[in-house]
Amino acid sequence: TEIMKEIKRILKDGGHLLARVNSVNDINHGAGQGKKIEENFYYVEGYNKRFFNLNDVNKYFSIIGKVKSKEAEMLRYEKPKKLIEIMVTK
Length: 90
Prior knowledge:
41% strand; Rossmann fold
């Protein structure tokens, strides 16, 4: 939450933050796989990976401002990637 507070501090009033995070539904890219570090946080193939659901997104990003989010699919990789697209307005 310290990161979110810092973003809120430096983001101008009316400013937007756009972000993408890994979805808990992204089984093609490690969700629920590997060594569990904590809830929705795994060590997968040499990397720490955190995955989010929409409640997590609202919990963390609402520290900054009004949150709009949706789950989406990206086809850039060999297998489809599930992610959450986020727009926050301060």
